[in-house]
Amino acid sequence: MASTEIIHAHAAPQGFIRKYIFSLDHKVIGLQYYFLALIAVFVGMGLSLLMRIHLIWPNANLPIFGAIKPETYLMFLTMHGTIMVFFVLTTAPQGGFGNYFLPIQIGAPDMAFPTLNMLSFWTTFVAFVVLVAAFFVGAPLHGWTGYAPLSAVPSAGPGEGLGADLWITSIAIFCAASLMGALNFITTVLDMRAKGMTMMRMPLTCWAWFITAILGLLAFGVLLAAGILLLMDRNLGTSFFVPGGLNFTGQTSFPTGGFSSSTDLIKHNGGSPLLWQHLFWFFGHPEVYIAILPGMGVASQLLSTFSRKPIFGYRAMVYAMLGIGILGFVVWGHHMFMSGMSPYTAFAFSIMTMAIGVPSAIKTFNWLGTLYQGRVRFHTPMLFAIGFVSLFVSGGLSGPFLAQPVLDIPLHDTYFVVGHFHLIMGVAAIFGIFAATYYWFPKMFGRMMSEGLGRWHFFLTLLGTYAIFMPMHYLGLAGQTRRYSEFTQVAYQTKLIPLQTFITYAAIVTISAQFIFLFNLFWSMAKGKKATDNPWEATTLEWTTATPPPHDNFGGRTPVVSHGPYEYSVPGAARDFVMQNDPATTPAH
Amino acid sequence: MATLSPTVAVKYPQTRHGGGSGAPPTHGNGGGDGRGANGSPDYGERLRRARLGLVVGLTPVIMMFVSFTSAYIVRKGLPTVDPRTNSYVHDWLSVNIPWGLLLVNTVILLISSVTMELARRQITRQAALAPVSSIPGVSLGEEKTFPWLGVTVVLGLGFLIGQWMAWQELAARGFYLATSASSSFVYLLTGMHAIHLAGGILALLFAAATSLLRKPVEGRRIVVDITAWYWHFMALLWIYIFALIEIAR
Questions:
Q1: Three-class SS state of A5
Q2: Which residue of A lies nearest to B63 if distances are taken between CA atoms?
Q3: A238, A241, A275: which to substitute to probe chain B, counting the most B Cβ within 10 Å?
Q4: What is the Cα–Cα distance from A238 to A397, expressed in whole angstroms?
Q5: Do B188 and A244 touch (CB under 8 A)?
Q6: Average pLDDT, stretch A96-108?
Q7: Burial B90-128 (b: 16+ CB within 10 A, else e)
Q8: d(CA A236, CA B78)
Q9: Is there a contact between B75 and A240 if contact means CB atoms under 8 Å apart?
Q10: pLDDT in the model for residue A390
Q11: What are the φ/ψ torsions at residue A415 (nearest 5 degrees)?
Q12: Apex CA B204: angle with CA B206 and CA A113, to 5°?
């Protein structure tokens, strides 16, 4: 393996604090992100369980929480969405695995700016603490999308005071953290690749993290701007989002607290709630791809590795991801068909949205093409990668329905949308995280995860999530409204409660199955089978180094790359795979 | 190893192969890790990486001001509900900005941009000569050092004070932050720009602090260099904002 001598830019730290807390090492930072996301995902999942229980037993007295009031349900809804989208789906795939493996996969000793990397994590951590603090002062009701004027007027409801201030502050801090991270990822990819690692020799995971970082760089600045405007509306008396003539006085929709006869409303004049929605969704739609693109990268990597075949259409995969990224910025209006929009504008957004089906289909068929006639090894990471493709297709196919205004208008505020976005953005991205965990665990911790427990976890989670989210499409078509805390008041909604009950039971089973994963994760760290340096017989650079990788990733050497990332079953090669840094004399290409 | 940037004007012959940085970074071949082959810090490499990082880092700043601008333009053309008549009206109130004062501020900022550039070139020269002058017994003679960095900080602070006076003047004319959407935007745009410029001043003070700590001049040069480009960007951004609030008012 050709190498050249290098000396790492910063020495290996000695003390506990510099080594594990304020570490500059991208691998430690990656793990910090990962475990932050792990804590966040269990908080978010716990909230979803409480909501599911409340939906079918609205009068049940729960431990700690007692009987859940409608506004408490909406608080759970807000916190569940915010925690899951920002601190799980954005944090784990990009901040966690991207931080850990992007530098190793491109043959770099660390990120371009290690100090900024550390700051980025700790800023994210502060954002999480601020968000969780909102729990203790009463979390806001406005959902993760924070629509104005509900989010812009402190007296608009319980939790919309200090709780909403904390919520938007947390989002703003998170934006700053994500921008630092994105800056680092982009500079690293452009400037730190090893000799011979051309852009078109990068693993698709690196392409995915790179494109995700570009999306983050462009999107989070807009959300930060929107957040600043919202904070000004809330605290400085401006009227960017609060229209004039709002009159909440005398309406007490909420049994407790509720609206006061507010004089601060009178001061506001002529803002536009739609302005918030435009700014939010200009961020919000790319955010969907920020969550899913790393999963696509991982799925591509794993399908190729475990099928022992080159990825089908490498360049097409790269261009498809770029296409998805670009189109992701011109479709935000499809979230707003119900908010009042010129039919011509809606038509343009609709066409653009359906156009995303093209690169998505390219990716799907390339994944299937990679599997076709492969010598597939069904290890747990591969199962989750296949599960990712399955969920991506199931969740994605309802997209073109919702992309059409004429269908979106009846479906938008129903469970159809809940089913759609949970399958594609939630569960598919989570499957990407699971696949990445099972795949890279041996490299990160030097031990293998249990295959038996992994299989149980996979099948229970796959069947469980389909059992939860597939029926939601039927509920939506039947007119079951989303965001309602209970369905006991309206006759046609009451008839759908049995299906909701089924979903709740499925959710309880699926959530229980996650403890298999949690046990497997921690048990394998201590007791798992010792892993070799390249247990999956994969080709990318992280498998050429020691397990776990040394502080500078390659032990004082920097790899020289002579091959593409997915050279499996190469005719004439000694083994059925060619490592990226094998000497170029091996017949390749 | 001192790798020189293309803008450096050195009268002395280059002692190392540090030239050749006229070519743009060759991204296709990847990079190193910021160290030369002999293990000494490669400041040329670090400078290039920092500049790339700056360009990437300015993107969200641009996106943020693009967002504010689009909100501004949309809000300006938007009919809104008048609660008294319950009808849609155009309520946009033109802000009578103190453009004379702002013009003075603009000139101050542009001059500071020039002094910033002079500071950048000065420290570039110092960094280029550092390996030579560190050889014992070698003297390059007394070099005149004018404190361009200090002048830039003073001018930057002067600009901020001028902006504060402009806000006072706006308030005196009856335009407070919450008076109307238009005045909110004027305060927002000028305020966000001022915060960003204050960040640049902090970076310059940081560079000055490291010079007191006798850190290598090459490291300080990187801070000054990227702050200079950031500073020029802030000057351009200010001209844009000034034009926006003056023309689209």
A1: strand
A2: A221
A3: A238
A4: 42
A5: no
A6: 96
A7: ebbeebebbeebbebbbebbebbbebbbbbbbbbbbbbb
A8: 22
A9: yes
A10: 97
A11: -65, -15
A12: 65
| Residue linked to tokens 């049994």 | A255
Residue A195's CB is within 10 A of a number of other CB atoms, namely 18
Tally of CB atoms within 10 A around A81: 19
Render pLDDT for A267-317 as a digit per residue (tens, 0 to 9): 677 788 999 999 999 999 999 999 999 999 999 999 999 999 999 999 999
Residue A414, classed as helix, strand or coil, is strand
Within 8 A of A184 by CB-CB distance, chain B residues are 53
Spell out which residues of chain B touch residue A336, defining contact as CB-CB under 8 Å.
none
The alpha helices in A403-450, defined as continuous H runs, are 405-411, 415-421, 428-445
Task: Tell me the shortest Cα–Cα distance from A217 to chain B, in angstroms.
Answer: 6
B27-247 CATH: 1.20.120.80
The C-alpha of B210 sits at a distance from chain A's nearest C-alpha, in angstroms, of 17
Give the count of Cβ contacts less than 8 A between chain A and B.
150
Maximal CA-CA distance, chain B: 86
Residue whose tokens read 């090492």: A25
In this prediction, the answer to ipTM > 0.85 reads yes
- pTM of the complete model: 0.91
Probe site for chain A from B43, B54, B64, B167 (most A CB atoms < 10 A):
B64
Amino acid at the residue B119: A
The Cα–Cα gap between A288 and B24 comes to 35
Cβ distance of B178 and A237 shorter than 8 Å: yes
Spatial distance between the Cα atoms of A358 and B246, rounded to a whole number of angstroms: 45
Tell me what the mean pLDDT of segment B79-97 comes to.
80
3-class secondary structure, B36: coil
Inter-residue contact A99 to A30 (CB < 8 Å): yes
Are A577 and A308 spatial neighbours (Cβ–Cβ below 8 Å)? yes
Closest CA to A533 of A542, A521, A520: A542
SS (H, E, C) B143-187: CCCCCHHHHHHHHHHHHHHHHHHHHHHHHHCCCCCCCCHHHHHHH
More confident residue, B33 or A500: A500
pLDDT tier for residue B18 given thresholds of 50, 70 and 90: very low
Q: How far is B84 from chain A (nearest CA, A)?
A: 8
* Cβ-contact A122, A17 below 8 angstroms: no
Helix (H) or strand (E) holding A294: helix A273-307
The single residue listed with the structure tokens 């959902």 is A143
- The closest CB to that of A179, out of B49, B60, B82, belongs to B60
pLDDT of residue A406: 93
Tell which of B184, B230, B237, B241 to mutate to test the A interface (max A CBs under 10 Å): B184
Q: Hey, what are A83's tokens?
A: 């925690």
If one looks up domain A25-245+268-559 in CATH, what number appears? 1.20.210.10
* β-sheet bridge partners, residue A577: A568
How confident is residue A164, by pLDDT bands cut at 50, 70 and 90? very high
Q: Residue ranges of the domains in chain A? A: 25-245+268-559
Domain boundaries, chain B: 27-247
